[in-house]
């Protein structure tokens, strides 16, 4: 049958081809190296207090890293990182942050170093080195080498953060509703 060439027909045909291509892609290309769909990640829920206090989507993720398979030096760095960074914020913020390069981590740690000194808790050069060494190694292990799983986790955290923001906005709107005086 002859398909009349109209903008609408071309649009419908393009949409059908796109849908078929996406379906074929999902069938032929696994979402993660393990073959499991990327959306099958399990991210534990956080407490209502953490959900309410979250400033970034990364705040809603896991607060620890399984460093048991890391080299001994990186395990020691993880202990320093956990002790130093948890003084000011949840470890989830950096564990689930999208940053992977040492350059980005140096930028953020420099900022945190200034804040820590301002609050009377200065970081030593050895602490800064340990934190940066851990963050660089961990980023390569979890975020680069297992990018599909990490991206799926980020997607879950972003959805949770959007829902948390919606709850906050709804709560604020209820608080600011004008009350009618009888």
Features:
single chain; 182 residues; mainly alpha; 7 helices; 62% helix; globular
Task: Please tell me about this protein's structure.
This protein is mostly helical and 182 residues long. Helices cover 62% and strands 0% of the residues. The chain is globular, with a radius of gyration of 23 Å. About 8% of the residues have low confidence.
* SSE string: HHHHHHH
The Rg value, from CA coordinates, equals 23 Å
What structural category characterises the helix and strand content? mainly alpha
Figure out the total of helices: 7
The outline comes out as: globular
Number of strands: 0
Helix content: 55-70%
Could you tell me the strand content as a percent range? under 5%
Major β-sheet annotation: none
- What is the oligomer described by this structure? single chain
Give the integer mean of the pLDDT values.
Answer: 83
């Amino acid at each position: 049958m002859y398909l009349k060439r109209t903008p609408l027909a071309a649009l419908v045909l393009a949409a059908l081809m796109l849908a078929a291509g996406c379906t074929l892609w999902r069938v032929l290309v696994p979402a993660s190296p393990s073959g499991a769909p990327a959306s099958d990640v399990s991210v534990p829920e956080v407490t209502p207090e953490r959900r309410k206090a979250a400033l970034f989507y990364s705040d809603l993720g896991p607060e620890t890293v399984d460093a048991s398979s890391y080299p001994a030096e990186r395990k020691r760095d993880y202990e320093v990182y956990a002790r130093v960074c948890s003084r000011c914020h949840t470890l989830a913020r950096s564990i689930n942050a999208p940053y992977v390069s040492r350059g980005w981590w140096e930028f953020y740690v420099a900022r945190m170093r200034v804040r820590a000194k301002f609050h009377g808790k200065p970081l030593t050069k050895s602490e800064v080195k340990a934190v940066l060494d851990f963050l660089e190694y961990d980023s390569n292990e979890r975020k680069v080498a297992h990018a599909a799983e990490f991206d799926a986790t980020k997607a879950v955290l972003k959805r949770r953060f959007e829902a948390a923001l919606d709850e906050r906005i709804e709560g604020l709107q209820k608080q600011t509703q004008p009350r009618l005086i009888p």
